[in-house]
Amino acid sequence: MSTQDLRVTKTKESLRAALMELLTEKPLEKVAVTELCQRAGITRRTFYLHYESVAKLLEAIIEELLLQLEASLRKTSQQRQHAQATHLQPQMISLFHHVAAHRQMYRYIFSASSQFSIYKRFYERIKTIVRQSLTDMEIKQEVREFYASYNANAVLGLIMEWSEQEFQQTATTMASVLVEMMELENEEE
């Protein structure tokens, strides 16, 4: 990695950290570029080289988070297929490790000051992944979308509750909770 690339990476990391700090103090609409730059230790000019607004910075952070979330969900699916497991095992679930690593951002996503559209984007991405995983399951066509929606909201609900509880449980504990809930759901059938 060149020195220039390293500087860009560090600048973006500083901006992201500064924005997350500011979002714990005030809503996005109240975060000024000048204030953000002071907190990140960069100039306004440098900020505008990378982003056109604070909202665009948040958008970039969310998109990166969505890609990482998607990768963690796909990893879980691949591990399950590789193990040829009929039931999901807690150690196969990497979703909660991803959330734990980015807990500050998830705290914001599920806070009252966040926009519903952010939640909706996470919901849609998870729903798409769930829908893709249904290809080998025998679920009636007219029920598939409801099933995908139900599961996407269940995953987000677990993350939201974990956030509400200040991420007191470990990622491994949360994976076990998810498996236990899935087993309860299967028992009812």
Automatic annotation (TrEMBL):
Residues 55-86 form a coiled coil. Keywords: Coiled coil, DNA-binding. InterPro entries: Homeodomain-like_sf (IPR009057), HTH-type_Tx_Regulator (IPR050624), HTH_TetR (IPR001647), TetR_C_Firmicutes (IPR039532). Pfam families: TetR_C_8 (PF14278), TetR_N (PF00440). Residues 32-51 bind DNA. PROSITE patterns: HTH_TETR_2 (PS50977). Gene3D superfamilies: Tetracycline Repressor, domain 2 (1.10.357.10). Residues 9-69 form the HTH tetR-type domain. PANTHER family: ACREF/ENVCD OPERON REPRESSOR-RELATED (PTHR43479), TETR-FAMILY TRANSCRIPTIONAL REGULATOR (PTHR43479:SF7). This is TetR/AcrR family transcriptional regulator. It comes from Paenibacillus yanchengensis.
